[in-house]
Amino acid sequence: MRLLLLLCLLILSVPAARAADDAFWAQPQRGGNSFNAVPPDRAYFDALRATGATWVRLSPDKWRSAGGRDFLMGNADHYDGLVTADVATLRRVLDDAHAAGLKVVLVPLSLPLLRWKQKNGDVVDPRLWQSLDNHVPAQAFWRDLARALHGHPALVAYNLINEPAPEYGTALAEHADAAAMRAWYATVQDGPRDLRRLYTGLIAAVREVDADMPLMLDAGWYAAADSFDYWPAPLDDPHLLYSVHMYEPYAATSAPNQSRAKPYRYPGKVPFGPGSGHWDAGRVARYLQQPLAWADRHGIARRQMVVGEFGCMRRWPDCRAYLDDVLRVLEAEKVHWAFYAFREDGWDGMDYELGDKALPWAYWKDVEAGRVPSPPRAETPVFAPILERLRAAGR
Fold it and tell me: pTM above the 0.85 mark?
């Protein structure tokens, strides 16, 4: 009798937990990204929570697998089940995040037959987009992962794949106009490069084992804010979140700009798409309105809209102004957001607590030796636009 009662309580607790997940997203949530090479510990999550962050977008793909080349999958070339020891590692990390009071959105950088470029010899892996049969292992992976993690209290969403780019290698240019995007989509709809078709299959796989977990969907062309424009409609599931990333104009915010003889400035004229133009607070706002306008046309509420990543190189002299302009839009529109990145252990480019100066040689010695570096961090001016909003939300 006691066993039967316990089973009934467990069954009833899962819908209640999922209802709590939907309630979490009912209000604007602010957080950070964790794309670390070493599984983060409790102290890491405590530090992120202390900023006022309520959630972390967590990717485990850089972690060393106990069972093969690719964490959790073993081998993205031939998926035949989750690596049990890797799942245990992930669950321990989720436990630490939960103990710190942070909610987690889990996001893979790779799927079966879609290995992340930086773990693939810096070569784009196109296999997932070459046939519908190649979608099937990705569905199996998400079905298995959703089953393995079902009911974990830290989890509030699965972000099904980070920055998909089914458009890569086709005639569609990045940041093409909406008409060109829609014309391109008409040529691939219902085929293997149809991102909506991929998501439909992945959603169905998760729903076989978890009926209510919120699922976060990145736009195409690496989650570009203008890439929902070609979607004719949202997908048919009541627990979806739609996400874009904001690094535009990328020619100015990214690492290559730092090595230019004359770096692009902000505000200023910067290459973008097929040409170039002046970028300032107004242009940032207009660009970020594109996914919101798409959402408005289709009756998608603001509580379903996410900017899952945004950032700029911390040593770029205009980074603080850029972050401030982006955040003004996100806060005004009451969308969820997560900055990139919190205390990344293998790359310092967007670790804003390090300020705008070069790091000492000791930092790079630790990275080369495979040790987690511990550089001096502080509440720097470049981190201020993010930190101010995180703290204000907590008051």
Answer: yes
